Amino acid sequence: MASDRRIDMPSGDATIVGLIGYPVAHSLSPVMHNSAFRALDMDWLYAPFPVADESLSRAVEGVRALGMRGANVTIPHKEAVIPLLDECTDAARAAGAVNTIVHERGRLIGDNTDGIGFVRSLQVEAGFDPEGARVVLFGAGGAAKAIAVALAHAGAEHIAIVNRTVARAETLAADVARQGTVAAAAFGFDEASVQNVVGDAHLLVQTTPAGMAGGGPHFEGMLPAPLQPDWLHEELVVADIVYTPLETPLVKAGVARGCTIVPGWGMLLHQGAGSFVRWTGRSAPVDVMREALLRSLDVRTAHDVDGD
Ligand code: NAP
Asked: What is the pTM of this model?
């Protein structure tokens, strides 16, 4: 059985990874990764680092100077960190964002496990393979871009992007269409057109803050505009990347309409598993990480605390 020794008392030789973002106090990544290190009895530690904009370059240099193995990067630094790194992987370049830094003998490499983590969540948590799928994607921000690119690489046939700001949906559709054989189209909030693409889709992905607890009156209790619950159909797989509350309004509507559900924590879990593999070169103990994540989310929901 794994002991708590390494986490309670990392040795002087411990390998350090961490999270660079602002704020980071709400993050569930430390509990997920430290549970994984403990389960595998690894002398590693994952620490959260709140880093304001003006300190980002010094914090990134710190990863190198302190001999850290790497770091996750989160809001608001995922794009700003790119010019501070020595190189980026194809996944990071295609997403235009970095969520994982790997430190290789003095060189800092930027990677992105968000998109592939989302695709893994479809496969592992719902048994859904996006190859050949018609997708409707609500939102065109940073998370939507990583997801759309990864879905294109996973063989999705068509991605319809629905966004309040149509120009942003158009830009993302053009970016996605450059990723290979996928076709992409942009939509605003025209109800008839959106109802049509939802009716025709195999997979619906929701990446706006709609439904987020503590997100304010625009979001709390809401479906992503202009979606109506009765547009959802039984053949649809519904993935909501919001995970506070655990049962978002979209998840509830999807369950009521007989859809297959992919919960929002799935992306968080599998992007974390991807980072773990990049840093350690070992398989991630996904079951341990899932249990730690869900335990923390349950506690958080019980205390009605918002998180992201
Ligand atoms: P972002 O880049 O700021 O994009 C936000 C998106 O939401 C944009 O498409 C924006 O539309 C739309 N939006 C914002 N306010 C809106 C409103 N009042 N009405 C309609 N649409 C609105 O944010 P992000 O980084 O992509 O994150 C989006 C959400 O995903 C957040 O809730 C975040 O917590 C969640 N997330 C979850 C995970 C996970 O692991 N599960 C990972 C990353 C993010 P416009 O273009 O019109 O502004």
From this structure: 0.94
